Amino acid sequence: MPLPDDPVAIVTGAARGIGRACAEELARKGFRVALADLDSSDLDAAAEAVGEIGPGAIVLRGDVSDYEEVQALAASVVARWGRIDVLVNNAGISQPKSLLEISEAEFDRTIAVNLKGHFNWCKAVAPGMVAQQGGRIVNMSSISAGTGGAPSAVSKFAYVAAKAGVQGLTRGLAKELAPHVTVNAICPGSIETSLTRALINARREAIQDTIPLGRIGTPLDIAVVVAFLATVEPNFITGEIIDVDGGQWVN
Predict the structure, then answer these.
(1) DSSP class of residue 217?
(2) Which tens digit of pLDDT belongs to each residue from 138-156?
(3) What class does CATH assign to 8-242?
(4) Which residue in 31, 119, 157, 159 is the catalytic one?
(5) Where in the chain are the domains?
């Protein structure tokens, strides 16, 4: 799939952390980037930074779990820039309650954001990618989908269930959208962001002991892999679930 001279990417959950790092790295690669997230000042700041790095940035405010909102946001990108070449499905929420504590509404919300949100954005952008005979979709799963969550007192079963679903979605869509659209998923390990720092600091040495490369990951560690999958070179990679975890999964 040859990319145009001014390719367009959408990154969800782009206000901070991994999403912002992905948006910035794509901007460095020459992408115009639409940063999607809930309404916040962090989103505006991220878009301003991305706009200073690359050829253009716009803000998309909305809830990934609402398909009509997502469809309207995708249409606004096409109206502005004419096409969508790359989708990075990064938006997600955590849910630390156990099965005995969680409510049905809390479980539903976790699935709605972490799994249905991926579906909504894929459904919104895939027709255009198929029509233009080219596109890249990168979904964000987690090594927790395979491990059941980190060994701690905090339950993450709802999050784990959603992230496992993302892997199934990725493999199914890789078959359905071939040959012109690739669909892959990334599984981050322990990544330090402003949202995870307190939890990591409480167990930093114990976590690092589970990682053969001996350090906690950074958002940039994820972003460089996303940017690679978004470019022309990996045109024979689809349906893959790629761990980016410093070897944590194999350990």
Answers:
(1) B
(2) 999 999 899 887 655 566 8
(3) alpha beta
(4) 159
(5) 8-242
Rounded Cα distance between 164 and 159, Å, is 9
Active-site annotation holds for 159: yes
Judge whether 248 and 143 are in contact, CB under 8 Å: yes
DSSP tag of 113:
I
Please enumerate in sequence order all residues whose Cβ is within 8 A of that of 189, keeping only pairs 6 or more positions apart, or say none.
143, 211, 217, 243, 244, 245, 246, 248, 249
Bridge partners (DSSP) listed for residue 36? 12, 60
From residue 15, alpha-carbon distances to 18, 48, 170 in Å are 9, 11, 24
Q: For residue 223, what is the enclosing H or E element? A: helix 219-230
Place of tokens 């779990």: 65
pTM attached to this predicted model: 0.95
Residue type, 14: A
Which regions of 56-208 does DSSP assign to beta strands (E)? 57-61, 86-89, 135-140, 181-188
Give the span between the Cα atoms of 165 and 44, in whole angstroms. Answer: 31
